[in-house]
Design goal:
Elements lengths: L1 H12 L4 H6 L6 H8 L7 H11 L14 E2 L2 E2 L9 H12 L2 E6 L10 H8 L20 H8 L6 E6 L10 H17 L4 E6 L14 E5 L9 E4 L7 E3 L2 H18 L2 H14 L1
Parallel strand pairs: 3-4, 4-5
Antiparallel strand pairs: 1-2, 3-6, 6-7, 7-8
Length: 278
């Protein structure tokens, strides 16, 4: 859906309709081009290159994951056996966004996972490697956490972690204890561009939950990439939603839940209570 939205944006910027593109020979038919833009048909590399060439888009944004984009000294395309294409696209999105708002009810968001916690999740079927898997043994951090620390979004990263996550002993008590201590340090730090809050169980009564493992991604204004809602899944990278009403609804829900989560001290109190229970 991301590529389709981008291609439709390029066409609209040039004030072309579907028929114009077909008549110019850049697409086989109006129906085919429409299906490409709405992601209802597979997008082959040859079709993509032909359309990009026709629109004069020689340098697509990083967020679309075209080509080989380095992370530090690592070329992810050299590790396709451990780094699937959907994970590459997701990492490129992380590098291109101006703001991330993440809400999780199943596990600690990947951006905040300790190496041991991430490894425990990987044993449960997650397939995204750590930086150690990609040859960066000097910094064995989960890749998204590494990117957040090195390249935090310009307008900030905000993570809302449901309190139920704190009680799931993923990896065992010792691993969870280390993860909760790390979350405490994140909440205490509370840097302007990286903020973390715990959503308490007591607040659920009046909470408009945006759904499990959903992230709102915002991109630079004036570009071809709209704001996205990413609903994550373990094995296929999840779903990207671009409908403005859906994205706006999730953002509004997240804002309301963030306010209901309370202060930094309230989040620390919840974390300390769960640490004492371990």
């Amino acid at each position: 859906m991301v590529w389709g939205t981008y291609l439709r944006g390029l066409r609209n910027q040039q004030h072309l309709n579907l028929a114009d593109v077909v008549q110019a020979g850049a697409a086989r038919s109006i129906a085919t081009l429409s299906r490409v833009e709405t992601a209802t048909t597979p997008l082959t590399e040859s079709v993509l290159v032909e359309l990009l060439t026709f629109y004069g888009a020689n340098d697509p944004p990083l967020s679309l994951g075209l080509g080989r984009v380095p992370v530090g000294r690592v070329w992810r395309s050299a590790f396709t056996d451990v780094y699937p294409r959907w994970a590459e696209r997701r990492t490129c999105l992380d590098r291109a966004v101006t703001e991330i708002r993440s809400y999780s009810t199943l596990s600690v968001p990947e951006w905040l996972q300790t190496p041991a916690y991430a490894s425990a999740l990987a044993c449960r079927g997650h397939t995204v490697p750590t930086t150690a898997d990609l040859g960066r043994t000097e910094r064995p951090l989960p890749l998204r956490r590494y990117l957040l620390e090195r390249h935090p979004p310009r307008d900030g990263f905000a993570a809302l972690v449901d309190e139920t996550v704190l009680a799931r002993p993923i990896g065992g008590r010792a691993v969870l204890h280390q993860q909760l201590e790390d979350l405490c340090s994140r909440v205490e730090d509370d840097r302007p561009r990286i903020r973390v809050r715990i959503f308490p169980l007591a607040a659920w009564e009046n909470a408009p939950a945006p759904g499990p493992a959903a992230s709102h991604l915002t991109f630079p204004p004036g570009g071809s990439m709209p704001a996205l809602l990413h609903q994550e899944a373990q094995h296929n990278g999840g779903t990207y939603l671009t409908a403005p009403c859906t994205v706006a609804s999730h953002r509004a829900s997240f804002t309301g839940m963030w306010e209901q989560a309370g202060s930094r001290q309230q989040s620390l109190d919840i974390l300390h209570r769960h640490l004492r229970a371990l």
